[in-house]
Specification:
- This protein is an alpha+beta fold and 302 residues long.
- It folds into 2 domains: 127 residues, Cathepsin D, subunit A, domain 1 (Beta Barrel), CATH 2.40.70; 117 residues, Cathepsin D, subunit A, domain 1 (Beta Barrel), CATH 2.40.70.10.
- Helices cover 21% and strands 40% of the residues.
- The chain is built from 5 helices and 20 strands.
- Strand 3 and strand 4 form a beta hairpin.
- The chain is globular and about 50 Å long.
- The N and C termini lie far apart (54 Å).
Length: 302
């Protein structure tokens, strides 16, 4: 009896050790993969995501908000500008920078928040030479609504391209070729096109099992949820916002601990339904995010 008990105990111990080793091995493998994922060279990244090396541009991820910034020039002056996928105004800069550049005001415009509320009147400036992503254009410049960011770039600059943003590797690719078909785990979604909001990446996804329209917004520091969805799903509140158990985009799932409650009624016009969620940079940074404008697709990948 004692021998049998000891034998059983030894086997159980061996099984336990094996499970521990397997678990540690998985953790080590995950850490290794994560490390490789974050340390791709430009050449490796270009090959993986289907870009020529001259189609890849460095990103700077802001420490304060986690926004993606790129190098640009306006009338020859170098500026760090944030690439904002929900910027439907145009190339925008702070009033202070516009004064430094000596830009003359030619008019003014009213700006509205996501709920449709007017937040003020802002200047429209004369045209300037803008160089960004290796291209130089002449464009009207607008006053931005944020004083702590020098400038904003809109997605409308890139409507003829596939645009891939990778926060972890701090790289951005811009090309007219399609996304690689093989070798990358990905989910593909139809881009919901709205002429009122050119370039704004809106797709359908699920929030706690409820199918809704979702905006992927690099210019939002945190994920935001429409007040109507908060009430409909009875989302639990905490000291910083609302908890969402699961945002599901195909096989990709995200848990949001403190979504900010807002109204999104002002950006939902002419969509097939109301936009109910904004996935901000806090969530987008966890994946590689691609908008293929010519093929009207949004691709979430690893």
């Amino acid at each position: 009896m004692s021998a049998c008990t000891a034998c059983s105990t030894d086997k159980g111990y061996d099984v336990l050790k094996k499970r521990i080793f397997i678990f540690l091995g998985i953790l080590l493998l995950s850490s290794t993969l994560a490390g490789c994922r974050q340390e791709l060279s430009i050449r490796e990244w270009s090959n993986r995501y289907g870009f020529a090396e001259d189609e890849v541009f460095p990103l700077e991820i802001g420490e304060k908000y986690g926004f993606p910034y790129v190098d640009a020039e306006i009338n020859g002056q170098q500026i760090k500008m944030m690439f904002d996928t929900a910027n439907m105004v145009g190339i925008s800069i702070s009033a202070e920078l516009a004064e430094q550049l000596g830009l003359d005001q030619t008019g003014e415009m009213r700006c509205f928040d996501s709920g449709g509320r007017c937040i003020g009147r802002f200047a429209v400036f004369e045209e300037a030479k803008v160089k960004v992503f290796g291209r130089e254009n002449t464009a009207t410049i607008y006053e931005s609504t944020a004083d702590d960011i020098d400038g904003f770039l809109p997605p409308s600059l890139l409507l003829n391209y596939r645009v891939t943003i990778d926060y972890r590797n701090k790289l951005m690719g811009i090309a007219k070729t399609g996304f690689p078909e093989q070798g990358i785990r990905k989910e593909v979604f139809p881009l919901i096109v709205n002429p009122l909001n050119p370039g704004m990446p809106v797709i359908a996804g699920f929030v706690n099992g409820e199918k809704v329209l979702i905006l992927l917004d690099t210019g939002s520091s945190r994920t935001c949820v429409d007040e109507r969805l908060v009430n409909k799903l009875n989302l639990p509140a905490n000291e910083r916002g609302y908890e969402i158990k699961e945002v599901r985009l195909g096989a990709f799932r995200f848990r949001i601990k403190n979504a900010k409650k807002v109204s999104l009624a002002g950006i939902s016009e002419r969509y097939p339904g109301p936009i109910m969620l904004i996935l901000g940079s806090d969530t987008i940074a966890k994946v590689v995010f691609t908008v293929d404008y010519p093929n009207q697709k949004v691709i979430i990948s690893e």
